[in-house]
Amino acid sequence: MAVKKLSILGSTGSIGTNTLDVVKRFPERFKVLGLSAGHNIALISEQIRRFRPRVVSVATESEANVLKEEFSGSDIEILYGTEGLVAVSTIVESDMVVSAIVGAAGLIPTYSAIKAKKDIAIANKEALVMAGELIISEANKQRIRLLPVDSEHSAIFQCLAGHNKDEIYRIILTASGGPFLDYSDSELRDVKPDEALKHPTWKMGKKITIDSATLMNKGFEVIEARWLFNIEPERIRVLINPESIIHSAVEYIDGSVIAQMSLPDMRGPIAYALSYPERTNLELPRLDLAMIKHLTFIEPDMERFPCLKYAYNAINAGGIMPTVLNAANEVAVNAFLNHRLKFTEIPEIIISTMERHKQENVDSIDAILFADRLAREEAEGYIKSRKEKTVC
């Protein structure tokens, strides 16, 4: 079996570290050629020593200089910024790029990897939210595979195996519901960042954890599913499964529903994407069906958690609107984490920003980046004006 050579974008995040855990378990199957990180220099230093990549990228020049000094005398190329990300994602010898950067920063290196004819294990949902049509078009043009890493999309991918697309009735995306499923409106208004970061079933990065609490993460996954599986948004249903045992399902025209089940552990879908079409024995804890007392399914309340509704609105509008949605959400979540917004003000900033934009078609990455920048400025403006009114 040939060794699969990997470049990992976002190696110090949750998906990145779990990916490296899978690689560590199967050194005869995978080799790391490239790593990128943000500001976690201590962790990426450990990863460099353990996996000895050829190319490494970090956020800033000063952080790159720290690594250059630490690894002086080695043949590791150490870069920074967007150019560094692109260099990691386009290493000639790499067979696959794991796109695990959180946020819009993942768009350019992911798109560059596709143009360089690399298969993509995609966990950076924002790239598909912002530029799904362009990414799918380029992936088809380059004849590369986009293999989903998110547990929900991996589940759908597995449930579709061997079936005719024309036989699909709808896709069912499941959500944990986050930590505030049973909170009242008044309780939601008083939520603090530390509370929102306590996810009931998954261990994830800060931004994704907040998105899970607002259900925006599920909204993004609706948009992802629309592009990954070429299915209309109205045929994508979201159900809350608080136990996080059923990761998603596909309902077929004959009434059959095929679901994928497992204990919540991201190493499963990561390993499936890396080794597809084969499976690997990770020796993880197994799902004991006899121990499951019940499985709960709940319709999401889009009035209490309007971010999910805004995501459907954005994908139905098309054009730049999903980009605006994502940009406003990133700004609002960051403001909440920095105690500049209340939890319930996150959707208010998003819808205010979206309402300022008309639907416009986009035909290039540059157009998407322009819309992203403008939406961020507007969202920041709303937050600033809100704060000034509060002071007055």
Q: Can you describe what's shown?
A:
The chain is α/β, with parallel strands linked by helices and 392 residues long. 47% of the residues lie in helices and 15% in strands. It is built from 16 helices and 11 strands. The chain has a 7-stranded parallel sheet with strand order 4-3-2-1-5-6-7, with helices on both faces. The protein has a 4-stranded mixed sheet with strand order 9-8-10-11, covered by helices on one side. Helix 6 (125-142) packs parallel to helix 11 (216-228), helix 10 (206-214) packs across helix 14 (321-337) and helix 15 (346-355) crosses helix 16. The protein is globular.
Short structural description:
The chain is of the alpha/beta class. Helices cover 47% and strands 15% of the residues.
Relevant terms:
single chain; 392 residues; alpha/beta; 7-stranded parallel sheet; 4-stranded mixed sheet; 47% helix; 15% strand; globular
